Backbone:
């Protein structure tokens, strides 16, 4: 029997001033499968309450902290079905662990944890709990990223030889964290964010996208992390060379001091006979260049797209879908996995939805990059 | 006192196979102010019921027809707050009239009605009811369309001299209506769609966008409507010259047989000292070209944007918003207007939200274009 | 026997302050087949002499007028092989006639003459002389225009249904002719330019490009010409609907008051199964969109291009060629035709090189457009 | 007194099958200041003769080798004014040395020599001869590269923090050199090309462009060179991190196995308050992004451009200039320098024209990159 009610989500984090909390709310609800019904939105009970009001949820379900939420929700007949984690990074592990222990599946913002050691710990906790755990590497939700992944898997490009992935932002070109801007402040504080700055905030997205699309694991890297803005406590500009398992080489550029850039995530994959090029700021097109044929642009909703890409397209061609829609794809896949699990299946996520493995690899990437930078040399992965 | 609950929406139309119904559901709910709770989704009670299930609403609120919905909902303590109309065009007037007579505000898909005469009748009904009536000319919801409108109003371009608006699609390049494709079938049937084909389906969007952005009313036009695909019963390719109230001239191209095009709506406005260029398929950029300075690209969420544009941006720069987000802007403005009206204010829509005036002008455009085409001459508007 | 010397060119017009004269010099010489050796560059003997110096030709071959040039050159053993005409339009006919009568082939800047009647006269003179006559509709020299032409001829797009050609410039947005700017002054003077302003200066290029690429003749048109800038004596903004011989319809937009535009010539051709899109400001790419397949971008020098396109490409892929190179293609074809004629062949131009037929049709277009505008109706072509 | 005759060029290299020889011929002659009159086009006398014929020069001036050319030309009253070197790299030094010793100024294709040691030797020879020596780093001739250079010099971007320069080609994705293709063959032979493959062929262009535009010298680098195509004897894919004198960091990517790429040279420079972005395949636009203002696109021939950029623009806005025109800019500057030198001035090249210093730095870059790659570490520059 199909459950026709919406799944109920409890959110931790996402209180006043947050950017990513409301994004999770929209994304979770967009496809009509999930509704936000409870939350511990802030470490201040008062602000959590205000947030609950702004989300228009039952005031009784805006909790003073995540422990209280889990405690109370467990007992309700209409309990939340899972927990979404949207806090600063240092809380990802404790909240996820508490949720899993309380029997709640988890959908977590990235990175999985604040440190690599924590990620390994969390991996154990997920395995032990046997519950679905999803990680919102948003960019994996774009239809044309799915298409790019399908193309790599199909072998159309020939063996992959070279990858260039860049993630360039400019918003931290000045010491914004010194002005009290909330988004900048926690990111620039190693205690809240973990040891990586730019590498952890966006480098890890670029890393994930690269492995996700190519299907290739990294086996070594040589990274240089710089802190360009005086006084900043974390890196804000990173370059890494990566060796991939098939002998290919990747270059990863991540910067938050690339003045003028918005959210410039771009992936290029070069194979023996052709290449692909995807840009997050123009997400509904995928460019393919061939050694011998004309350049091709595949458009979202094109009838010629792979099943994986078409499965996540909502609108006809020429109707742009964006960041929120990509985010919502992950929630939709999570909802499907959750329904299957509720009906007795093992909590296997679909291969298109990032989970704890991606989380551990991402944290390992940060860890290895910092180590490589310190030792000024190549390191194994 | 602010009402913190979500507004309740009842939908007419949007049953199985519909494209625009689910779009309205997403758009209405996206900003967390509205929830779909009831509907008469199909003219078949069984299919209406199925649709209700897919929308995950209370089975008791999936009605067999719109009359039943209005009748029943009026009596509920948790009645719907307004009616969304997403049926084929010929039902827009009867449903809207019934809703207004039952005291429900209306949010209608475009065009307002099937004929100009109906639009005039509806205008009277709206005035008489004194209730909010919104029209989802989606493209008016894009942040950079708002920016373009603010630029025209500011006089930065100088007096407007020339406008080029084009809306090119290719999906009706073949006689799709003869294959039973639902979207094509009703659009190609004058009894369901009204007398205009392409001119009514997309030409009216182009017309609205042009007047909306420039702030200029049309005073005359000379239109040529063609039916390119053999056997089709309505026009599928249109060209119109328009005279604008300030003496400027506009060219409007609309086609559904422009093979290879997706949803190519584009507006260019040329003034004395510069011009603007907006393309729906690349909606987060607005191009400005100046007689003497460098070309400019304004990006969604740019700190330099007008208040009107920034008011409808949800994400930081570089995070693409698309069609659904633009649609949701209209619902958000409608929700605000509804709240104000509930609190005793007159039902004045904000000038940025298309309402019955836009609906009447759009229907008049179709009517005049058909007449001009028949008489092969300029006609007054 | 192949003649290995360069062909010798005598130029009429192109004196100090001219734009197009130096362009012809570069274009003619670019491929190493032609050299400028003589000229009557100005109606002032002194300025003609100065121009000769700037072109670094023999001072004895900088003539005081074109009659003197033809008279003197006929007698030289190293006489010029042909005459290039780059004067204002009103001199095109007399110079061409004089050259043909003196036995010199002609390469003329467009339009062929100042009026349609003159063009018909010139057509007779060309036929009578039996000499090569070429017309520099520059845009026909671009490799990807050649590709577009080959695609239309091949039937890949299916039957052509709709054409949109636009040529938008902004440089006459102000009354530049009133400031003494030479380029603007003669173009705004009907005595020098002929009766058409924008329609004759650039509209005719758009018209030619449309017929050249589609291979379809125009059979009727409905044009509106406007004079937007107060005090201007010729039209500066034009819109025309054209009926094509196969039943297709074309829209032609030309404007010189499109503030902010540079040299925005663009052609879109829509067939039953796909469309092509070429833009002069991005000339090394040709976009193809298909009803069912992915969008394609063909690049100059692509190994997949047609013979016609590859024949006029000089550089490997990714090395941009531009306006001068396109211009030079026409001179190269003219040089080849001239060599063939010198070796006894009839002066048949290759079909890719515009000649007197294109000249007559262009002038007829201007004539018909002016008449249609005056009569506010469709006219036959 | 100004010399009004054209300067006479003698070319070494550029025989049948050559790509760059004809390019130099066109570029040299394009602006009407120079003419090719002599050459030693091939190491085969017969082929040199054939080449002379194809260039339409006096058969007596197509020499069997460069020594013969210099010997003979010295004695002519109409001797060549300078020597252009377009041979494979291993001949650059001997030909340049011979020319300088014979009193002929030199315009050389890049790289200056085959090895760094040779470059140092050549630097001495240039200094000793006291003659003009130019190096055709073509990309320095584009108007918008000049604009980019002027912007960096002006400080508008603030202090430069990060540079990304990439030069991606795909044409060597297969072992083309094994097929006998001439262009591939000599480039893949260290004896003809020097020790660097991709790094020397195109990496050096990217390196030059970076230093040329930013005005910053490199002080250290860490390079990785790979040979991707099996059996190839030189590198075909390179990545380098560079430390710049002001503390900024640059990333340089060069590849000839980036399947599908044409001639993808692109430079991005990030400063404290904005950035610039120039792409060789779209050379008439320069993109500027600002931390706080709208993105800007500067167009070739824009009235707002710097003097340096406007000085090298030949056509009005919207008329694309390309690779040949950029190349011709260097020859024009060289011609001006040559005229000044002939009139007694010291042979100072303008700072915008690459000369022997750029040649030495380029060869040092290759040398240091190879050493860094071997030692797998940062090296001083």
Residues:
């Amino acid at each position: 029997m199909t459950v026709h009610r919406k799944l109920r989500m409890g959110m931790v984090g996402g209180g006043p001033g947050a950017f990513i909390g409301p994004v999770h709310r929209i994304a979770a609800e967009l496809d009509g499968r999930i509704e936000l019904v409870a939350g511990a939105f802030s470490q201040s009970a008062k602000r959590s309450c205000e947030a609950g009001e702004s989300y228009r949820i039952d005031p009784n379900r805006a909790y003073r902290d995540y422990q209280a939420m889990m405690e109370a929700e467990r007992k309700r007949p209409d309990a939340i079905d899972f927990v979404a984690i949207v806090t600063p990074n240092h809380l990802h592990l404790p909240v996820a662990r508490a949720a899993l222990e309380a029997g709640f599946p988890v959908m977590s913002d990235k990175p999985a944890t604040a440190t690599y050691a924590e990620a390994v710990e969390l991996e154990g906790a997920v395995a032990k709990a046997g519950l679905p755990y999803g990680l919102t590497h948003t960019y994996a939700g774009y239809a044309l990223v799915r298409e790019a992944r399908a193309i790599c898997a199909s072998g159309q490009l020939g063996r992959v030889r070279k990858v260039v992935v860049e993630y360039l932002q400019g918003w931290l070109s000045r010491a914004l964290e010194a002005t009290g801007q909330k988004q900048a402040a926690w990111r620039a504080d190693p205690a809240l964010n973990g040891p990586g700055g730019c590498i952890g905030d966006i480098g890890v997205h670029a890393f994930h996208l690269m492995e996700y699309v190519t299907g290739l694991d990294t086996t070594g890297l040589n990274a240089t992390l710089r802190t360009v803005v005086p006084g900043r406590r974390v890196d804000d500009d990173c370059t890494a060379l990566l060796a991939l398992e098939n002998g290919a080489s990747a270059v990863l550029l991540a910067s938050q001091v690339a003045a003028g850039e918005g959210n410039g995530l771009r992936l290029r994959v070069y194979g023996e006979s052709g290449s692909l090029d995807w840009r997050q700021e123009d997400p509904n097109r995928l460019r393919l260049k061939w050694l011998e044929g004309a350049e091709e642009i595949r458009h979202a909703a094109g009838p010629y797209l792979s099943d994986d890409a078409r499965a996540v397209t909502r609108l006809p061609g020429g109707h742009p879908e964006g960041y929120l829609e990509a985010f919502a794809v992950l929630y939709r896949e999570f909802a499907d996995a959750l329904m299957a699990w509720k009906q007795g299946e093992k909590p296997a996520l679909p291969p298109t939805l990032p989970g704890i493995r991606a989380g551990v690899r991402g944290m390992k990437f940060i860890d290895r990059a910092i180590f490589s930078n310190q030792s000024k040399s190549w390191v194994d992965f």
Notes: The domain at 7-139+327-355 of chain C is CATH 3.40.50.720 (Rossmann fold).
